[in-house]
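Researcher: Next entry: Protein-glutamate methylesterase/protein-glutamine glutaminase (Azospirillum picis).
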Amino acid sequence: MSDTAFATPVRVVIVDDSALVRQLLRTILDGDPRIQVVATASDPLQARAAIKETDPDVVTLDIEMPHMDGLSFLEKIMTLRPMPVVMISSLTSRGAETTLTALEMGAVDFVQKPAVDLSVGLADLAREITDKVVAAAGVKRRLSARCAALRPSAGPAATGGPAPVPLNSCAERAVVAIGASTGGVEALREVVSALPPGMPAVLMAVHMPAAYTGRFAARLDALSPLAVKEAEHGESVLPGHVYIAPGGQHLELAGAEGAYRCRLHRQDKVQGHRPSVDVLFGSVAAAAGSRAVGVILTGMGRDGADGLKRMRDAGARTVGQDERSCIVYGMPRAARELGAVEREVPLPRIASTLVGLLAGLGRIGEHPPSGL
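Model: Predicted structure:
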């Protein structure tokens, strides 16, 4: 179920150079009573006219098109007429890299084009496509000029980054778990780049396919003083490292304090996802208990709510991103309503809040239940 309900249908412009894809997407979107396709366009020139004429709620945008590539057109949209955009990307390595750039530029979400048999493949993705379009229409964010500026995707972290924060022995042995979905690329980039050296181990689950998570880890690694990598099965979990769940696999924290390791597996999807935030949070609750901090960020659905509740019940500190700064407030809202969130803070304060909670850890398990 979508996190957003509308009294009138969400008005959509489809932009794709393939006539077949345009027709398939129109059939899927018009088949949902929540959505109305108001125009289609085969290239950015037609799209510009269609957007000006129809003033849609959402644009679905192909990445590779004639006359102007999707990224260049996205930049123009975010500069001249900011609006929610859902990218339609290919499964290629180049497509994954470009899609990550698009999300950093301000695109709300993306859908992967099937590599073969478009008709069947897109039909199988119908619910994902419609839910993402509806969620995009409900975005409550300031679409500003900063969305138009392409941020560096590689290179060393900028000088003058976050200063080391001394942590006591309890904090050094702690584990941080973070989960995100829709809007998570931008949110995680902001949080991870602001974390200081000397952090305890950080494990993250974000709803991304396999072609994306390794590249996403590399992009974060270039921006952070911490070592960011895609998690590997059986590897030791070390302070100063960030481990991202690989697409298509669940990530769990295994072992005990002083000998934690990553456990990966391909068991059934949870809340419709693999990797699942619930699976990660649940394993951290079981293995680390009060030696952990959990953070749930922007995302559609309720993945992570149950797991974060398990963490809080086990004595962990828990943080949720607040509604105003979320791209989609679904996951943090579900966690808050379940009583899993100890405190909500805006995205720019997530990193400092996390560091403050870690620095404030006294003897393990000794903190006020409310944390307020």
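Model: Note for the record: The chain has two domains: 10-147, 169-359.
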